[in-house]
Structures are given as structure tokens and as C-alpha cells.
Design a protein that fits this description.
325 residues; alpha/beta; Rossmann fold; Alpha-Beta Plaits; 2 domains; eight-stranded mixed sheet; 12 helices; 36% helix; 4Fe4S_Fe_S_CS
């Protein structure tokens, strides 16, 4: 059973982090840290101050990290290598450690599509994946799996993931209007008592598909595609890969939007594990326990563990139990 370590006191993290990271990494090897540096204007996104205790722990261990992310596919200052570099500098991350933005890739055949995995992740001797736990328009929840499934691939693969999950009708619309109310991209309108889907506006999130028996994905659920992409990246990464999930400023939406939306859960702490499935499951469970409800499903109309279930399936994990310490 995978172990997940929880530290609740953010101001006393460096020493605790050093103990765990000393077991995970070799100081003689280069360390690549998979990050999300945040969209300009997003007040809930992590800041260099949130990451500083982890960098401090690595420095204590004589491990010199390089921070890394990939450009985004949508309209943003971060949709080019040069533009994203400017954002990193503006947000002050380059003062913590050297930073790399790259869209270079290696290709991996997944079940339903070819994944262009980030080349720096594939070539790194050891990897630390730091994820901010929050909601998401399309996946409902974002943690380690989402960080790799979208953040660990090229702009082309990001677009493919959003395209293959678009809906198709498999039965007659009953006219309940639920899909139109829940659609994050406002791609569904009710006309003459029936739902009409504008596939050009559709983000391929699959929210309508998981909530309506009359709809199905054109190829696979968005969450299935996330699982495929994440596991493709994981299989290319070094066995010396470790995960940190930060449960702080838990917003309704993602750090990839300038407006992350309302805070939907209280701060819980920082989780450490060598298992991305376990750390995401523990993150969701801790938030739900703290709030007494299924936070992300209520906020974003989708089971947050759906993507985690698919990742576990493609990793060959028959159970997702974990030991919280």
C-alpha cells in the first residue's frame, strides 16, 4: 500500500520536506521540478513563497533543482516559450532556481492517440512533480495526474485531449436542460425543448457525457484521455520520480485561468508520496473530510476521482488504497 505523508503546518515544512526528499533523490544527479507557474492575474495560484520551503529543503540536501513547464494551447501570455518565460520572470520564480519552458517532445503511443510527452521530463535523471490542488472547468479537479496529463505534454497533445472527448448523441434528447446549465464553455443551448451542441465552442470536458445517458464521447471521456496522457508521461519519466500536492488556496477553477474563482475549501497542508494516484486520492479525501461534502463534484459537476481511476487502470493498479501518515 502506498504511503502518503501529510504536513499541515506550512511554516515548518523545510525540515520535514528534507527528510522525505533525502530518501527520494540522489544529490549527485540533476533534478527537474515539474511546475505550473500560474496565469497572470490568478490570485489563488501558487507563488514563489509557497515553493520556497521545498527549494530550501533541496538546497539543504545539496540538490540543485531546475523548474519546468510547457506552453499552453489557449490564448494566454503563456502560449509560447518566450511569452511563458516572461511570465516566469514576472512572477519571480527565476529567483528561486533556474527555469525552463519547452515544447520539445518524444512520442508515445497511448490507447486512443499519440502523446507528445515533454522531452525534458523524459530525459531527466530524476523528477519532482509539484501540484497545486484546486478545481478545474473540465476535469473537475486538478492534482498530480492533471499536472502531467496536460502540463507534461505539448500544445498539440493538449488540443487533442480536448478534441477527442467532445460529445455525440447516442439517444434522443429528453429536454431536461441539465447539460446546458452545466456546460463550462456555454456550448449547449436549449432550442424548442432540445439541447443543441455547438462543437466549435465545446471544450471536450465530457461533463455532459457523464451526466446524460443520451450523450457519449466521440472517442473517449476527457478523464480517460487525461489518464492515458498522464500514464504515457509517467512511463517515460525516471523511476526516481516523487510527488508533492499542495492543498492551499483551493479555488473552484484552475491556475490556468486569470480568474480562479471562489475558494471552495480550507487549506489542509502539503502531501508527499511516490504514487501519483495515491496522492491525488488522498488530496480529494482530505478536502472532502474537511468540508463534509464532495467539494469538486458539487462545484464542477464531475466526480474528481474519475481521471484518477483511469490513471490507475493504465498504470495497472488494481486498488487505490493508501496509508496516510
Amino acid at each position: 500500500m502506498s504511503k502518503v505523508y501529510l504536513f499541515r503546518e506550512f511554516d515548518r515544512l523545510t525540515a520535514a520536506a528534507a527528510l522525505l526528499l533525502a530518501k527520494a533523490f540522489d544529490p549527485k544527479k540533476e533534478l527537474l521540478v515539474k511546475m505550473h507557474f500560474g496565469e497572470p492575474g490568478n490570485k489563488a495560484a501558487l507563488t514563489p513563497d509557497d515553493i520556497a520551503p521545498i527549494i530550501g529543503a533541496l538546497n539543504q540536501l545539496a540538490i540543485r533543482p531546475t523548474l519546468f513547464d510547457t506552453p499552453v494551447a489557449y490564448n494566454s501570455p503563456r502560449n509560447s516559450v518566450e511569452g511563458y518565460r516572461k511570465v516566469v520572470k514576472q512572477r519571480g520564480y527565476n529567483e528561486l532556481a533556474p527555469c525552463i519552458i519547452s515544447d520539445d517532445f518524444v512520442e508515445i503511443e497511448a490507447k486512443d492517440f499519440v502523446v507528445q510527452a515533454a522531452k525534458p521530463l523524459a530525459e531527466a535523471e530524476q523528477v519532482l512533480v509539484i501540484s497545486h490542488v484546486k478545481g478545474h472547468y473540465c476535469s473537475g479537479f486538478g492534482g498530480a495526474i492533471k499536472n502531467l496529463a496536460m502540463g507534461g505534454v505539448t500544445k498539440k497533445t493538449k488540443s487533442v485531449e480536448h478534441t477527442l472527448g467532445k460529445p455525440k448523441w447516442v439517444d434522443d434528447c429528453e429536454g431536461c436542460g441539465l447539460c446546458a446549465k452545466q456546460c463550462p464553455s456555454k456550448a449547449i443551448k436549449m432550442m424548442d425543448g432540445k439541447a443543441v451542441i455547438n462543437l466549435e465552442k465545446c471544450w471536450g470536458c465530457s461533463i455532459c457525457e457523464v451526466n446524460c445517458p443520451s450523450l457519449a464521447p466521440q472517442v473517449a471521456l476527457f478523464d480517460d484521455l487525461l489518464g492515458q496522457a498522464a500514464v504515457a508521461v509517467i512511463h517515460k519519466m525516471s523511476p526516481k520520480t516523487y510527488y508533492i500536492n499542495i492543498i492551499k488556496n483551493v479555488a473552484k477553477f484552475c491556475d490556468c485561468d486569470a480568474d480562479g474563482g471562489a475558494i471552495v475549501a480550507r487549506d489542509v497542508g502539503m502531501l508527499f508520496s511516490d504514487d501519483p494516484v495515491a496522492i491525488d486520492c488522498a488530496s480529494i479525501d482530505l478536502i472532502n473530510q474537511a468540508e463534509g461534502k464532495d467539494v469538486f463534484k458539487e462545484a464542477n459537476f464531475k466526480d474528481p476521482k474519475l481521471q484518477v481511476d483511469f490513471a490507475a487502470k493504465y498504470l495497472g493498479q488494481k486498488q487505490k488504497d493508501y496509508l496516510l501518515q
